[in-house]
Each structure stands twice: as C-alpha cells, then as structure tokens.
Amino acid sequence: MIIDISRKLNAHTPTWPGDRPFSYDLTWSKEDTGSVNVGQIASSCHTATHVDAPFHFNSHGTTIDQLPLELFIGRAKVVDVSTKWLIKPEDLAFIDFSQTKRLLLKTNAWSDPSTFPKEIPQLDPSLGEYLNRHGVELLGVDLPSVDPLDSKTLDMHHALEENHIHILEGLDLSAVEPGDYRLTALPLFIEGADGSPVRAILETIDQS
Fold first, then answer.
1. Fewer CB in a 10 Å sphere around the end CB: N or C, the chain?
2. pLDDT for 121-154, tens place per residue?
3. Is 137 marked as a binding-site residue?
C-alpha cells in the first residue's frame, strides 16, 4: 500500500510569512495552441513538503543537486512524539535504530493544513549527535521547520548538518501509524538550489 505524505500545492497552500506563495497558471490553452495546454508554476523552494539543502542555512553548504539520492529512498521509521512539546534524545530511547537510517517524527502539531502554524514543538539540538550515533542520515518532520518558527540561529539545522543528517520538512503524517515503511521523497534536480519540493510517499513493508 502507498501512503501519500505530501501536502497539496495550490493557491491556498500556506507559506512562510513573507515568502512567495505557490501558484500554477495556464500559460497557453489548447484553444490557443490548437494542440496542448501548457502551465507554469512559481513557488518558494520551502513550501509544503520539501527538502532543505545545507546551502539553505550555510552559504558554504551543499546544494540540492549535490545530495545523494539514496538519502531519500529506503527504509524509514515513523515515531509518534505527539505528546511532547520539547523532543529530546530520551524521548527516542525506546527506538530500535538497527535498521533505521531515516527517522520521521509525527508531532500532529500542524493540524490545520490550510493555515501556517503559529507555534510548533521544539527539537533539542542534542538530537543531532544522538541520531548520528545511532546511524540516522535523514530526519523528517510534519512541521514547517526543525527549528522554532522565529529562530534566527537555526540551532537544530546546524546540529543536524554537523552530524551529517539531512532534513525533510512539511510532511503530512496524520494518517500514518507508527512503524517501519519504505520512504520515497526525491527532490528535484535543481542546480545550485537551497531546497526543493518533493512528492513524498510511504510504502508498507511486508512483516511476514
């Protein structure tokens, strides 16, 4: 079974305050061309479900086209942390990380998909070293950011980069039960970009 964990892109998709909203427009219609409809899109790289490249918060960091695709395909573990407002290493102590390179945190804090949240749970930057020690290479969240919305220092972003962990944000995990899945969340091949939207899906794994 395939579970779509992407947020829909349309004119009503909430964006970071002040950022460019998503738009899709029909540039040419079939009536105009005689053969095809041709559309165009405009968007921030950080709208809805997206990958942050290190260049997003580090001017010397790698760009989206330089990230290895194997980061975004493979076994992933969904963990429910919806009872926590500050998520720390001890909140993940029960996890068996032996087959987990990709960790997706379900907070359920972005409950209204039509509005941008006013506040979100906080991830303790000590998670960077903790997750690296357990072999995690990708952290996904159902939030607009891994840092507080008003953060200027982006401590969690930097803690993850320092520990070689990449970032997937804006997931919709509302219909996903905790457990192990196969994740596919490929960023677009945009040269020099600081991020990219993705179509993220989970596939159930046969446990037999």
1. C
2. 999 999 999 999 999 999 999 999 999 999 999 9
3. no
For residue 60, say whether it is annotated as part of any ligand binding site. Answer: no
How close are the terminal C-alpha atoms of the chain, in Å?
15
Our answer to whether residue 164 is catalytic in this structure is no
- Give domain limits for the chain: 45-204
Q: Active-site residue among 12, 56, 158, 164?
A: 56
Q: Is 169 annotated as a binding residue?
A: yes
DSSP assignment letter at 2:
E
Query: Checking DSSP bridges between strand 102-106 and strand 122-123, what pairing results, if any?
Result: unpaired
**What are the helix (H) ranges across 13-88?**
30-33
Architecture of domain 45-204: 3-Layer(bba) Sandwich (3.50)
Could you tell me where the beta strands, DSSP code E, fall in 135-194?
A: 138-141, 166-169, 179-184
40: number of CA atoms within 13 Å, CB side?
3
Q: Are 175 and 3 in contact (CB under 8 A)?
A: yes
pLDDT in tens, 72-85: 999 999 999 999 99
Confirm or deny that 46 is annotated as ligand binding: yes
Whole-model pTM? 0.96
d(CA 136, CA 89): 13
Strand pairing report for 86-87 and 122-123: parallel
